[in-house]
Amino acid sequence: MFHETLQCCTGxxxxxxxxxxxxxxxxxxLAAGTIAISxxxxxxxxxxxxxxxxxxxxxxxxxxxxxxxxxxIAFIRILDFLSxxxxxxxxxxxxxxxxxxxxxxxxxxIPYDLANVQGQLRIREDAILTAARRYLRILLPRIVQDISExxxxxxxxxxxxxxxxxxxxxxRTMAEIYSSLPSPxxxxxxxxxxxxxxxxxxxxxxxxxxxQRCSVIAMLGKELSPHGVxxxxxxxxxxxxxxxxxxxxxxxxxxSERPIVQQMRGGxxxxxxxxxxxxxxxxxxxxxxxQSSSPEESLLDDRPVMTPISFNSLTSPSSIASRQRLNRVIxxxxxxxxxxxxxxxPSLRAILLxxxxxHPDGLNVRYHHxxxxxRQLLQAxxxxxxxxxxxxxxxxxxxxxxxRRTEPKPRxxxxxxxxxxxxxxxxxxxxxxxxxxxxxxxxRLLVIRDTKPLPPASELxxxxxxxxxSQTRFSAEATKDCLEKLHxxxxxxxxxxxxxxxxxxxxxxxxxxxVSPLFQVRWKRLVIDEGHVASSSTTxxxxxxxxxxxxxxxxxxxxxxxxxxxxxxxxxxxxxxPEDVANSAANDVVGLPGSPRSDISSSDLSSAxxxxxxxxRVWTSDDRQDLNKLANMMVHFLQAPQFASDSKLFxxxxxxxxxxxxxxxxxxxxVLTQVMxxxxxxxxxxxxxKDILLPILSHETVLxxxxxxxxxxxxxxxxxxxxxxxxxxxxxxxxxxxxRNVGHLQQIIENMSQAMFWHTDENYFNADExxxxxxxxxxxxxxxxxxxxxxxxxDALHHLKSAASDPVWRALLCHANVFHRAxxxxxxxxxxxxxxxxxxxxITDFFSSNPYSFCHPEHLFKLHQLISKRPLLNEAGLIDIGxxxxxxxxxxxxxxxxxxxxxxxxxxxxxxxxxxxxxxxEFDLTSPGKLKHIRQELIDAQDRVQTISAGATPGExxxxxxxxxxxxxxxxxxxxxxxxGNTTSSKLNYIINDILLHAKTEKFLIFSRSPLxxxxxxxxxxxxxxxxxxxxxxxxxxxxxxxxxxxETSDTYRVFLMELKxxxxxxxxxxxxxxxxxxxxxxxxxxxxxxxxxxxxxxIRPVIVKTLAIRLTYEETMVSRRExxxxxxxxxxxxxxxxxxxxxxRDFLANPTFLPDPPPPExxxxxxxxxxxxxxxxxxxxxxxxxxxxxxxRYMLRDDDSDDDFDNSASAHEEGTSMQMAPTHSNHTALSxxxxxxxxxxxxxxxxKRQSSAA
Length: 1255
Hints:
Elements: H1 2-5, H2 16-20, E1 30-38, E2 49-50, E3 56-57, H3 61-64, H4 73-84, E4 88-94, E5 102-109, H5 126-139, E6 144-145, H6 147-150, E7 162-163, H7 174-179, H8 191-198, H9 210-224, E8 228-230, E9 235-238, E10 244-248, E11 253-255, E12 260-262, E13 266-269, H10 277-287, H11 308-313, H12 317-329, H13 348-358, H14 369-374, H15 378-383, E14 387-391, E15 410-415, E16 419-423, H16 428-438, E17 445-448, H17 457-462, E18 466-470, H18 471-476, E19 496-499, E20 502-505, E21 521-529, H19 540-547, E22 549-556, H20 584-589, H21 602-608, H22 621-637, H23 641-644, H24 649-658, H25 668-679, E23 680-681, H26 685-691, E24 697-704, H27 708-727, H28 742-757, H29 767-772, H30 774-784, H31 787-804, H32 807-813, E25 820-823, H33 827-833, E26 843-845, E27 848-855, H34 857-869, H35 875-902, H36 904-909, H37 913-925, H38 928-951, E28 979-983, H39 986-998, E29 1003-1008, H40 1011-1023, E30 1028-1031, H41 1037-1049, E31 1055-1059, H42 1060-1063, E32 1072-1077, H43 1084-1091, E33 1103-1110, H44 1114-1129, H45 1143-1150, E34 1167-1168, H46 1172-1183, ...
Helix pairs in contact: 4-5, 8-9, 9-10, 24-25, 27-28, 27-31, 30-31, 33-35, 34-40, 35-37, 38-41, 44-45
InterPro entries: Helicase_ATP-bd, Helicase_C-like, P-loop_NTPase, SNF2-like_sf, SNF2/RAD54-like_C, SNF2_N, SNF2_RAD54_helicase_TF
Region (Disordered): 1192-1234
Pfam families: Helicase_C (PF00271), SNF2-rel_dom (PF00176)
């Protein structure tokens, strides 16, 4: 068939030398596929030479120029260049059938590691390599793998043909790669692995789930089997004949054998959030607790393991060699002639102690410390710390003279079985509790807090199994790095100590205050929790980890980078990104300046170049940021041998291929997948759910309508945006949405978000100032703007005038509080307590026929406390105290304003009232009195836990035991019928109602970006007598630890108020089962991290999450837009663009709309100020006949009572005043009160619909 389709003209086969030349042995090459080259209409056969595949070697351009189509000339030049420089070998024949007008060319790729060529293919000029890579980028996409075509027959159907390169373009995002990484398989075969699989790991008290055991075994395999692994930078690629070669996509290097690289002893444990990464780490520690570190490898120096006993007295060759090397250099103390031959004969005890310290694995010595102590050997055992001598030796330079060479100095490096665990400072206490919970007592734990000094290196190495430090405390040791001081020839002069007939030198002379003891230990393991902080190469933490001598390193995090979350937000198609205008292949080839074949013109190449694949997605700057973070982890922290030896390797071969302007190069995503798979250990969520199912999680967005007064504030803010847009004509920097005003735009969003809850401003958001020039605005707009803008301006001025003319709105905005509506409060008492003007004392509106007054939340709380303490206090007394309280508040406000103005923060914030308001609230929340009270509550909770442990049934729920004032005297109070209604914040109303409905049986975790919002909620919780804790930036770290423990152990505290940026990572708060976000969260990773504080292993209740948003505002738009973007990101999730960068959100904010009058409130609070019993009793007394009411209860003053507030008048109801009396001694016990705030679960029963309060 061959001779029938191609008639050979004069020619000759390959010479014997060419046949013997490996460069022409095509059977050792990769049979990539075929290419069809168009021929001229009147082609004629040319001179060809036979090759061993019975085809013909492809002639050069000179022989084919008249044969091939003119458009193929440039492509023939490319083939000619690649053949000439031995990158490919090409054979050809004329086509058949449908390919009769084409020249079929077989392409063979020559591997760089071809045998018997003396490595000449690996040593080529850079210019040749650069040009060849550009040409291969054009050639490879044209190669077709079609077995019929390869055999010279007709082409098969398109379904049976495939492109050799780039057909199945992998378009996964980095987050999708992360989510699809395969779960680890327990393939390690060893006694330790078997013990972990069987659940018989010693020293681990808790039982691991099956998936957790697999992860621990995978970590163990990386640590204990650091054998070579296939190079992840090369991907397998097959030829037409099915033979597998290995290809590097960035360099286009082809190998017949895959390289083997050294595996790192560590990696990234990145299991799903809330699946127990902490216990996995502890399982690894417990499984290897008796394994000691080994000396750091050195090509220039033997480093035998020694102990003080072996160094001074044993006759092993390593001990003798070490002593001789030291004595050979120390001139002041020459070695004795018989030192090596006749050392002191060690005792059997000394030999035993040396063996125990140098071979600890499997001996379980820690369980025999009592026996050692009985034999008086424990101290000797602990002092006999194993070590090796680390010489600061550099590679020898043969050009140096012998006189310049100096003997390197040794440094003592202690070996250890200890693991350093570095955690965020707010998780230090939680990790300590986890260690005590999951590990048995023999595990020795050292917690380094704050500025506590580190023990000596020998103690760190010998006395502890886990050294727990915060990230800041660990990083502080980076400055103590004068390692030169540790290298010395100075012999230890410490006197030997005799321990039960064993002499050991306990060295104390090699300590330096400016050198951290961490540098003198060869650490077995370093673990960094929340290890995404290791993604920056410039931090002290990473710098210190590189300088320390560490055998194994682990990063533990659920989110290695911003986008790698492994979360499932729903199904959806991939986002479509705009195509880049640049074409990398075209730009790479044109011109080839400086290349060996620069004679190939750009016009020649334009016809040769065809793009066979069209990337769907171009990787963005966010992707590059994630890639750089991963590179920093592997290169600088984990120091993976392959990448640490060449810090640019990851960038050149991984990142640059993915970040090509026209999209990732073919197979570059496959390379990234292999790299991530070698370093990361994580289970797919489906495999985790086979072993354990968390309680159901429900998440809903609750849309609310603004309170009428909050609605005025929102419309005023919208009006100011509209006026700015119209007056600036939406151009130049005066326009708020100008690209240079990013900071102002962000502030607008924050203010708008605060207004969705409640926002105040003494300047009324400049409403008065705008209204003063309203005529000017209207005139300018009528002259130069459209009718649409004029209509918008008129609407804006209308809303500004409506708000500015409302005295109640103006009064509320002058006070940084969310006011509560109060029904039934006597006018005189209200005027004494309220900071509002008298003109707004009694208010009615469309939704309430009963008049109400706006009350300060702190005043309501104080009134309740006051009446509970003194139930007979009359109206006059309440009035006097009210005025005194207002005076104290005024002085406190002035004092706090002075503090704020004197502080640096106050100077930076200048006159921004919202910032000042937040600071003032923070002062209140962190007052010493409140902190002292909460500390006392923690002590009480701990005492209660001890009581339960002594007598209660395990797992039994014990309700908080508090006493409240239940005296019928409360019904006689002037405030007995006062009822608390809705606040001016609809979100706060919803939160209060939800807490009152569920706080008796469930705990709440409430998140907000704004500390001011959390302060408002805290005040409202005080009003309804529900105790809460705060986790904000102004609470010191030690107190935060106490708060977490208190919330988890105490039934008293039902609500945890948490600032989103501080409380969204690492914490375990499974005692809560209800989560409320006060505002929508744009970034999915932040929201999910926050939810995972509750929805994690250990949670036994269904978790209910609610996100509060205001209807018809940017919050509702943000929720819908966020969900649409999440759906587009697919099941793997990922980072959304900044909200100000999203066109939909930006357009909504830039085009203000005004809210209509709100409908009636869906939630109507009706909470009795003094409790239900007092209200019912007051109603009962009010319904009695008048005669019955004239028989007052008589009480005698106690002998020890001298309070001036008590009124001893016999007429309790004369002239409308209430009598203030004290009970007799017989009633003293019944009337004793507890002054703590009333708990929500005991006294408050909210109703959704307000009931009419009695007059």
